[in-house]
Amino acid sequence: MTHSVFIQNPSPLAAQPPSPGGGHQLPRNSGRALEMDWVDEIRINLSAAERRVASLPGRRTVKKEAQAAWLLKAITCIDLTTLNGDDTTERVKRLCAKAKAPVRGDLLERLGFAGRELHTGAVCVYHRFVATAVEALEGSGIPVAAVSTGFPAGLVPHDLKLKEIEASVRDGAEEIDIVITREHVLTGDWRALYAEVRDFRAACGDAHLKTILATGDLKTLRNVAKASMVCMMAGADFIKTSTGKEGVNATLPVTLAMLRMIRVYQERTGYQIGFKPAGGISTAKDVLNYQFLMKEELGRDWLEPDLFRIGASSLLADIERQLEHHVTGHYSAFNRHPVG
């Protein structure tokens, strides 16, 4: 029987201001044998997907205290990231300091949040800086995520990819963000994709595996959906949209396709798979739309950092700026809210 997605919209769910929390507390996805029937049956209705996400901004909104609560929750799900060619040890240390104290103390006090724990979901860096970040975050409970497998193109030899994963795990990375070989998707070689990701999962050991699909390179939503399903069957703990380096990165239609695959996988296996949009999410307004879509499609559990992460660098500064506006009534300059 063919499984078609985007047949109808689920009923809107009421927004509940969630409290910060996190950590990997859920049973890990053990993966399963590759089921080609699951892949072959996937169909995507592009126009329905586009209509679904186009309706979101006008249909869902939060204001004032509710918006502040949603933005505080978003902070706990940010993988605070620096992936630049000019990264330095000192920049990574500053980023880690911001991850531990993402909002100014005076703003938290005026929000009634003083004394409560608040930090980002992770800090994401190249392998070169894993040990630096681990040391800077010691005792904070914030995991280090390392991009790996020849990020961002993923075109280095397979054995080197595995060695890079293993090296980052030895240095203390608790999460590994790998990139898949896009050619496997574009040529429909699903068995090769499955085998590749299965090897990555084995190399990760206890570290959580986040598979970056580089959706902007995959051309169609059907390819995105099929790649999502194959990666989950291979044992991915998270599926992630983008490296942030493609011409097109995270979008709401791509997100919808991936969330529907997460839902199908959970229905069939019982495992909850995390989702991480990355690239181009730079404003508080952007992140709210992703949160709303997560809540409507997958439920309240997917607003927590063990199932939802946002790959971002400049987003945190805009969230802090919006929180300052909430408590003061004035917008400050963007450069008054440094990230790292």
Give an overview in words.
One of its GO terms (molecular function) is deoxyribose-phosphate aldolase activity. This is Deoxyribose-phosphate aldolase. Residues 1-11 have a biased composition (Polar residues). Keywords: Lyase, Schiff base. It catalyses: 2-deoxy-D-ribose 5-phosphate = D-glyceraldehyde 3-phosphate + acetaldehyde. With 340 residues, the protein is α/β, with parallel strands linked by helices. The protein has a single domain (44-332), classed as Alpha-Beta Barrel (TIM Barrel). Helix content is 44%, strand content 9%. The chain has 14 helices and eight strands. The chain has helices spanning 36-40, 46-54, 56-59, 64-75, 89-100, 105-110, 130-136, 158-170, 182-186, 190-204, 221-233, 252-269, 284-298, 315-328; strands spanning 78-81, 122-125, 144-148, 175-179, 208-212, 238-240, 274-276, 310-312. The chain has an eight-stranded parallel beta sheet with strand order 7-6-5-4-3-2-1-8. The longest helix has 18 residues, at 252-269.
